[in-house]
């Protein structure tokens, strides 16, 4: 008896797992990093507009200053007359014969003291005025009157009271810078959302806890707006004050060069004033951006 032939069929191959199939498939290409050309194009978009504007201003200035009726030197004349002052701002020959760096540094030290005091006092007064309706009614009219007094109008009063140039300059900086800090801080405190206040009541926060947990974070963007305005006004005030008080400082340097009829040096000093003022504004803006985690505008 013969056995029937067995037909053996090969077993089907096991299906590949999804993970194995994924491993065999080509990985998607990573997003290509921005090319160098794109980066240069973006940089040119930032640098080119102010550079072109500056070039146009210099060309127009050169043409207008070349006329016989112009009393201002052309940019080319400024370079020839003040080349040493531009290229070497760090010289120090003693007394007031110093480079513009040292004059600017002296002015910045005065601004740091006066503006620092104005920032502390301004935030404290702003919180008081913004938190208390009675304090707002009593102090706000006085603040609105005093803030309209020009900075230099305070100088004779400060000299009469303090009798020294440097404390008088610090007082002028302080009284000039404090008002935008007070006003913006008060506005920030009054604009705290009611929900935040309710949370403080529900949690029964003590006054210090409410100040540091709710009030200060909510009002910080307004505070830094006031600080940016205040630091700019401080820089304006010290330059104007130094013109009258004398001594070392950018303001005194400008007035001294005017008395010596060195207009080119004055123009160079004005460029320094503008650049330092811009740097101060950017510094406060950057600090506000870091503290508020991007809530304030740069």
User: N- to C-terminal separation?
Assistant: 100 Å
Structural class call reads: mainly alpha
* Overall radius of gyration: 32 Å
Helix content: over 70%
The total count of strands amounts to: 0
Quickly count the helices.
Answer: 12
Strand content: under 5%
Largest sheet: none
Shape: globular
User: pLDDT below 50 for ≥5 consecutive residues: which ranges?
Assistant: 1-11, 13-24
Task: Estimate the mean pLDDT confidence.
Answer: 83
H and E order:
HHHHHHHHHHHH
What is the topology?
Blueprint: H1 18-24, H2 36-65, H3 75-81, H4 83-87, H5 100-131, H6 133-146, H7 154-162, H8 165-190, H9 194-202, H10 207-245, H11 250-259, H12 263-291
Helix pairs in contact: 3-12, 5-6, 5-8, 5-10, 5-11, 7-8, 8-10, 10-11, 10-12, 11-12
Provide a descriptive summary of the structure in words.
The chain has helices at residues 18-24, 36-65, 75-81, 83-87, 100-131, 133-146, 154-162, 165-190, 194-202, 207-245, 250-259, 263-291. Helices cover 73% and strands 0% of the residues. Mean pLDDT is 83; it is low at 1-11 and 13-24. It is globular, with a radius of gyration of 32 Å. With 298 residues, it is an all-alpha fold. It is built from twelve helices and no strands.
């Amino acid at each position: 008896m013969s056995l029937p032939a067995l037909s053996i069929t090969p077993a089907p191959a096991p299906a590949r797992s999804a993970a194995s199939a994924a491993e065999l498939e080509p990985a998607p290409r990573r997003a290509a990093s921005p090319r160098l050309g794109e980066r240069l194009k973006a940089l040119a978009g930032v640098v080119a507009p102010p550079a072109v504007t500056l070039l146009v201003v210099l060309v127009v200035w050169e043409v207008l200053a070349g006329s016989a009726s112009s009393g201002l030197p052309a940019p080319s004349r400024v370079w020839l007359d003040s080349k040493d002052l531009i290229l070497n701002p760090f010289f120090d020959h003693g007394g007031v014969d110093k480079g513009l760096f040292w004059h600017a540094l002296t002015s910045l030290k005065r601004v740091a003291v006066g503006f620092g005091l104005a920032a502390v006092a301004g935030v404290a007064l702003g919180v008081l005025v913004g938190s208390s309706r009675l304090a707002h009614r009593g102090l706000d009219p006085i603040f609105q009157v005093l803030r309209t007094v020009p900075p230099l109008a305070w100088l004779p009063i400060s000299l009469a009271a303090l009798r020294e140039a440097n404390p008088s300059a610090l007082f002028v900086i302080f009284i000039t810078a404090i008002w935008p800090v007070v006003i913006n801080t008060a506005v920030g405190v009054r604009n705290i959302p009611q929900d935040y206040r309710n949370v403080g009541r529900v949690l029964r926060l003590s006054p210090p806890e409410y100040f540091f947990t709710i009030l200060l974070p909510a009002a910080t963007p307004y505070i830094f707006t006031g600080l940016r305005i205040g630091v700019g006004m401080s820089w304006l005030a010290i330059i104007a004050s130094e013109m009258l008080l004398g001594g070392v400082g950018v303001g005194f340097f400008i007035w001294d060069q005017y008395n010596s009829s060195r207009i080119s040096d004055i123009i160079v000093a004005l460029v320094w004033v503008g650049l330092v003022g811009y740097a101060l504004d950017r510094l406060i803006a950057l600090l506000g951006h870091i503290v508020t985690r991007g809530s304030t505008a740069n």
